[in-house]
Predict the structure.
Amino acid sequence: EPEVTQTPSHQVTQMGQEVILRCVPISNHLYFYWYRQILGQKVEFLVSFYNNEISEKSEIFDDQFSVERPDGSNFTLKIRSTKLEDSAMYFCASSVSSRATNEKLFFGSGTQLSVL
Amino acid sequence: EDQVTQSPEALRLQEGESSSLNCSYTVSGLRGLFWYRQDPGKGPEFLFTLYSAGEEKEKERLKATLTKKESFLHITAPKPEDSATYLCAVQAYGGSQGNLIFGKGTKLSVKP
């Protein structure tokens, strides 16, 4: 069964450093998302991306965050200058492009980001 | 403010002991309510989407129902492999495709 792949599974970085989290969505999907989950907290929406542009972003997704689809298969989340509070599990998700709403999202296994 | 509250936070069952998980939601306009399963160290895995009050969906030992204010996930004769965290999420009108508001989840443990 097709799946969303995320790399790396764990990322440790120093505060103030830039990190790039990578995702390979399911090949025929055209909607892409990033969510995050701080330990013990809810899964939170960060951003949705379609047709090479951001469709919607949450308050969490400030100027330190950016997303990119650099080629036909990868989808990345960049955090320019990491803060301690950015430590979380980051999930990439994708869904099939169609006119139907409420499509199910397929999530990857996540990247655990630890900012020291 | 759109909000999702799940109860209980944790539930321990004996194998075969049926029970229900609750998801209460407050949303300006409901486009859809979703149930996901999350295993430790994994991303959420889709179970059901419900669109309107009165709707029911079933999959193996799981049955999801929806009213205007809450949803229930009924687990009939659970097995140890049903142990996981069950997440409820809503999509509200005005939000883009895929902007889901999640609850904190119910951690289910089923003992043999």
Q: What stands out?
A: The interface with chain B takes residues 4, 31, 33, 41-45, 48, 50, 55-56, 58, 91, 93, 95, 101-110 of chain A (CB under 8 Å).
